[in-house]
Amino acid sequence: MNKTHRRDDPLRFRLYFVLMNICLFFAVVGLINWLVDPFQQENAPSWYMALVFVTSIFNGFVPLFLVVAKFMRDDYAEGLLRRCLVVMAYVAAIIPPILILGPWILYLALAGDGSLRPDFYVAFEDAFYETRVAPSTVVRNVWITFMGAFVVVFQFLRWRDSR
Question: What's the total number of domains in the chain?
């Protein structure tokens, strides 16, 4: 499925891939921001809040638009989208059992009485099992994660096709 876009392709077909490239860039920016988290929301400078706003748009709403914008996809992009959604379905089926069973396996491997549990495991256990999170926060985080994973998987499949 190696397809290069020509200059005479309609602008909407080329724009689909340009927007997908921009979304991948902002997915990386969002991941770095999530890992580093340099500012508290109350103390953040205005340029940082503007960056967070733009990043949120390109990590949530633009990928959502790209998923539903059938008019912007040519045959190659449509096939790529379908392959991407199959991969996403596999990921959605596999990740929850890993997140549920993995900590129990690790707990039993580190001694059932909990004496050998490292600090990172205790922190994970508290966050995963003990923390109460608002349903709106869960839905927002799952949505942003799904949209980011969609962009990354789509771009990975596109890159793999180009090789």
Answer: 1
Residue 30 within any structural domain of the chain: yes
pLDDT tens sequence across 37-71: 888 878 888 888 999 999 999 999 999 999 999 99
Which H or E element spans position 155? helix 135-162
Q: How far apart are the C-alpha atoms of 54 and 152, rounded to whole Å?
A: 18
> pTM to 2 decimals?
0.80
The mean pLDDT value for 1-9 works out to: 55
Q: Per-residue pLDDT averaged across 9-29, rounded?
A: 91
- Separation of first and last alpha carbons in the chain: 10
**Amino acid at the residue 37:** D
Q: How far, in Å, CA of 76 to CA of 98, rounded?
A: 33
Is it the case that residue 138 has pLDDT exceeding 80?
A: yes
Cβ atoms of 81 and 154 closer than 8 Å? yes
- Assess if residue 136 is contained within a domain: yes
Is 2 part of any domain?
Answer: no
**Residue 133 main-chain phi, psi, to 5 deg:** -120, 140
